[in-house]
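Thread: 1-deoxynojirimycin complex, take 2
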Amino acid sequence: MINDLWYKNGVIYCLSVGTYMDANGDGIGDFKGLQRRLDYLHGLGITALWLMPFQPSPRRDDGYDVADYYGVDPSYGTLGDFVEFTHGCRQRGIRVIIDLVVNHTSDQHPWFQSARASKDSPYRDWYVWAEKRPPNANEGMVFPGVQKSTWTRDKEAGAWYFHRFYDFQPDLNTSNPSVQAEILKIMGFWIQLGVSGFRMDAVPFIIASKGAKVKKPIEQYDMLRTFREFLQWREGDAIILAEANVLPETDMEYFGHDGDRMHMMFNFQVNQHLFYALASADCRPLAKALMATKPRPDTAQWGQFLRNHDELDLGRLTKAQRETVFEAFGADKNMQLYDRGIRRRLAPMLGGDRRRLELAYSLMFTLPGTPVIRYGDEIGMGDDLDLPERNGARTPMQWSAEPHAGFTANDKPCLPVIDEGPYGYEHVNAAKQRRDPNSMLNWTERIVRMRKEVPEIGWGDFEIIAVRDAAVLVIRYDWHNNSVLFVHNFDEKPREISFSVGLGDGGGKLLINLLSEDHSHADEKGRHRLLIEGYGYHWYRVGGLDYLLKRSDVDTSVRKKRKV
Ligand code: NOJ
Ligand code: CA
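Output below.
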């Protein structure tokens, strides 16, 4: 198969323009500021940027309430700045994907304003109305505890409108052909301005049938094919990365059995079980989640992540598993959100323990798929739980020890910079870490480099290797007659494990460590015995005599030392 599907072996970095870098000193991050940080991002080695919504918006849901799909919010800059930015990315070989939020609009969007004003408005049918309060108005809230219902009466319209999310986010009637045509037009617009695709927000809700009479929504999967077809017609290598927290049995409906729907999806199933593994040192449910999400078309890809801009949603775990994760990482009620998740950043969840952070990231980088890093995680940023809801994990990027972390020259940043405690910007910032060879930042840079040199992960098939220890996960990838193998120990204590690489005759006798000099030779029976340190992670290239002699990129000293 052709190897130029860029999203199969990339490293994605997501950020919000408003909290990344403020160039004009008004306290709000902007495209000019982001542009100045492109060399930093390039140096980190990332291959694609995912920008959270930056379109004009009242920002009552951090921009996921769009008021104009064809513009840039004036606080962030102009369309001209946006194009300069995508050009700057292209010069550095970085692709840009942007959020596409079309399940709903802001209630301030002119379409909704027109729709509510008159039954005869051409936009009336762009939204979902009911004359009377639907009986299920108290069901299906995405933000329980904060959101009271999914239907709200609008005085001006004299009717009730449907909103899967907050009441200021009226749902678009996505079954309406005019709405679908508009969605394509929006994609076409941004593609023309240089983006390589979209992170599509709330996909299961976009394709679900909506209405007061709908008891059990029907998924209109065909819509996904229409989106993809259009996109690829306009720009062959553009992709859609779907936000769809669905059960593994429907994954193939989203990817398309013929690989004709979504190019990528976030792997929520693995994400939740991964946190369970980190909390309990039992990685068996994670192994199960990996197997359950294994089937996917050749051209499709998972996005693997640790934390994102939302709460860590634990809704797919069993009650007991969820309790275990809460206890380990978010025991305090104030750390929890929407009865199902934790609203903290990764570093404080893991107690700032560098060994655990490396373990978590090493794992993320070696899971089947393409890794997605959240800005600030590369320096181990913390959270501010005094901020409401999900904002606690959305504070500005910490660049230096200058006031407000060098994020802005303004005294009133749009969100407060963390300035106290162990995660305060005087301790945790990019400038300081750049100078320290042992910093998290430099570790991340090295692991990104290594990940890019192991395309087997993105492209290959994987197998989980049986070991008799629930705390240790061993995965092997095979691609084009090459194999790599990864060992992760979720326990704080060292473990001794034994396994066979499982490649049959003579294969896998030698494991070449990619991160240290500690290589492993199999015994006469072909088994490897490893001592792996607490929270340890090992990356190996699988080798045998023939294999080693053929490869030019394997350090010759390994061959000499081991007399192979
Ligand atoms: C999912 C986004 O990730 C979240 O931040 C947002 O609030 C909802 N979709 C609604 O757009
Ligand atoms: Ca600004």
